[in-house]
Amino acid sequence: MKKEIKLFMLSGFLAALMWPLSAHAIERDSVGVYLIGSTADYEEFCDVVNKGDTYVSARVTADGINVNRSIGVGDREYHFRGKFDGQGHTMTLNGVPLFENTQHGSVISNVNLTGSISATGEYAGSLVAHAVSPTIENCNSNATINAAGASKAGGLVGSSRGTAILNGSSFTGQVSGAEENAGLIGWNQHTAIIRGCQATGVQSLAGNLKEGANIVENTMLGDYEVAMALEAPAQATDSVSASMRAKVAPMAGTISASIDGIDYSLGSGSGTATVVNVNPNLTSVKVPPTVTYNGVEYTVNNVKSMNGGKKMESVEIPNTVNKIENDAFHDCTNLQDVIFADGSTTLALGFNDYPVFDEQLFEYCPIYYVYIGRNLSWNKDEDPPFQTRKKLKMIDFGPRVTVVGNSNGGSSGESELFDDCDHVEIYYFYGDEQSLGTEVTFYCCEGLANATQAYISRDLKASKYTE
Length: 467
Fold this sequence. Notes:
Elements: H1 2-22, E1 27-28, E2 34-36, H2 39-50, E3 58-60, E4 65-67, E5 83-85, E6 90-95, E7 99-102, E8 107-109, E9 112-118, E10 123-125, E11 128-132, E12 135-137, E13 140-141, E14 144-146, E15 152-154, E16 157-161, E17 163-167, E18 170-171, E19 174-176, E20 180-182, E21 185-188, E22 191-195, E23 198-199, E24 210-211, E25 215-221, E26 224-228, E27 235-236, E28 254-259, E29 262-267, E30 272-278, E31 284-286, E32 290-293, E33 296-303, E34 314-317, E35 323-324, E36 337-340, E37 347-349, E38 369-372, E39 376-378, E40 394-397, E41 403-404, E42 426-430, E43 441-442, E44 452-456
Parallel strand pairs: 2-3, 3-5, 4-6, 5-8, 6-9, 7-11, 8-12, 9-13, 9-14, 10-15, 11-16, 12-17, 13-18, 14-19, 15-20, 16-21, 17-22, 18-23, 22-25, 23-25, 30-33, 31-34, 33-35, 34-36, 35-37, 36-38, 37-39, 38-40, 40-42, 41-43, 42-44
Antiparallel strand pairs: 1-2, 24-27, 25-26, 28-29, 29-30, 32-33
């Protein structure tokens, strides 16, 4: 009996030793990016994301990878938010899309898809089924999409909320069976910026694509070139009308680059850069006014998303940025200090529209300190960006500020910038008390009623955030 027990224990011990040798382990590079070189690697990457590690990034290193799972990357609970670079390799779909759910900050680039999928939900797409503010660059699909079980189907994306950016991507496969079928996005709920793309074999680029709310440039639908601009008159259309088939000047395309922990989309034709994400390990982020990539200088003029910054406690935005888009800080749940550097132009601020529509831009940020170095504007029909920030204690207004608390940066407004910020203890103004009311106009700032005002001479140039 003792001999049998010893043999049993020995066999168990040997099995435990052999188990790690037979288990598959996906490789990572020196900075932690997953390297997908086989179907097994893709399977393991799916498990990593779908178990909660949503900010990870990956690169595909080989062709011939099969997508055989019951659900792709990003399940219903955990949505992918990192970067995925296919490096031009081809992956084969076997029933499901490559990604099921992606969220703010996700960037998918250089992926080629073939094979087929069958819709099991309301929306179907070969690259992503459900996306929130996706960035998709140089991705191509010739997959067959059988969407009999879906209401909306798109060649690349099933549904998109927020601002979708598609650059240099195409769909040349087949999509059928849904109530509405489109070449790039099945249902575009908010805004789409589509440049240098192509779709064939379909009647529309995207469902719910409206003139006046989207940008389409240098993009082909079959044999027609499509143009849309934000200044166009509002006119809803799900198909491309003759007036939208005007020729537009070709765009030179965009480049993805990561510089000093900040991810950018670089406009090689415009010389401008958009911030699309930040390294999740950074605690302090200072966005530079310009960046240089491959010897070319780009001006940073837009912030689309910084939602990778889960640990980010402070952020400084330069005066070259003219717009911060919706949902830019949705996941920055540790952000305490916000600095808008001094500037003479007005900075336009968006709001949060996910998961609840019409929330403040900093809804989920425990803001403690704000430096405002330029006039701010926002949509007067939306909640002001700093409304109800209960942890906000101190505010500095820089010497370039002429209007405080006005939704459009002009002479009248309805929204209160600091509405219900009743825990603010003090706010400083770089100017003397006599100048206040002649050089600076306050609007709707009752939320600061309990705070103490203090003045610092403009001549001292005391602000460390000046130009």
